[in-house]
Design brief:
The protein is of the alpha/beta class and about 250 residues long. The protein has helices at about 10-20, 25-30, 50-80, 85-100, 100-110, 120-130, 130-145, 155-165, 200-210, 220-230, and strands spanning about 1-10, 30-35, 40-45, 120, 175-180, 180-185, 195, 215-220, 235-240.
């Protein structure tokens, strides 16, 4: 059996990786556990040696993702200082920054990541990924240096639209259905289908997927439709009075 131990101080990171591995447990014949000790969270697994190579690929993908998502978001929250705008706009702006130039983030992390039998993600992040944080600092500095310019809504949304337009497209076309202030997403391949999303979660998912085309079917929430139309512009088609019952 091949054994691996992953540790982190971030509970959301440990929980995310544990859930992703748990979904693969049967296929890879994984023995898996997760526990907390001395303010750290541990995910420990064992799998047959024959599955080690494939398991390492899964681990690498999820470790890279949590650094690009959770660690980058924390870094931006701690260092970026934006003018006051409504909550949804600030949330969308930070989500766009998290996803901006993610391909390079992935490359820097994968180039430095080497899995043996254990990994403390915090130590790996702080001691091996200086170049990554320097790259993020350039993004933060650019935003902070232009914060006065971003006070106006027009300038703020122009920059937000620029960021979104330059994100990697992960879906060609998706449909979004609103019902009772909750949203469901249907993709062509059904890989990223989601249900019962809040307004904030919907916007985060749409920015991350960055689809070429969005079909939004609303029952009554015009505010979300208007906001999404402002940041996705011609990529979104909005229709009203289409029930979420059409979601299969």
């Amino acid at each position: 059996m091949w054994e691996f131990c992953l540790s982190t101080s971030k509970v959301n990171v440990a929980r995310f990786i544990y859930q992703k591995l748990k979904a693969q447990a049967e296929e890879f014949k994984i023995v898996l556990t997760c526990y907390e000790q001395f303010d750290n969270f541990f995910v420990v697994l064992a799998c047959p040696e024959t599955e080690k190579t494939r398991m390492c690929v899964i681990l690498e993908q999820n470790i890279i993702k949590v650094i690009c998502d959770f660690y980058k978001e924390d870094y931006l929250d701690s260092n970026i200082h934006l003018p006051i705008h409504e909550k949804m706009g600030i949330m969308a702006f930070k989500k766009a920054l998290v996803n901006f130039d993610k391909e390079t983030d992935f490359y820097i992390i994968s180039r430095n990541l080497e899995l043996k039998n254990n990994l403390n993600i915090d130590s790996f992040y702080y001691f091996k990924l200086k170049a990554l944080r320097e790259k993020w600092t350039e993004l933060v500095t650019l935003a902070n240096d232009n914060s006065d310019y971003l006070i106006g809504d027009d300038a703020f949304f122009d920059l937000l639209k620029f960021l979104i337009d330059n994100l990697e497209v992960c879906e060609d076309e998706i449909s979004v259905f609103e019902k009772e202030d909750k949203y469901s997403i249907k993709t062509r391949e059904k890989i990223n289908d989601l249900r019962d999303l809040s307004k904030e979660n919907l916007i985060s998912v749409l920015i991350e997927l960055s689809p070429k085309k969005i079909n939004l079917y609303c029952e009554n929430d015009a505010s979300t439709a208007n906001f999404l139309s402002k940041i996705f512009e011609e990529r979104i088609n909005v229709s009203y009075n289409k029930s979420v019952k059409n979601f299969h």
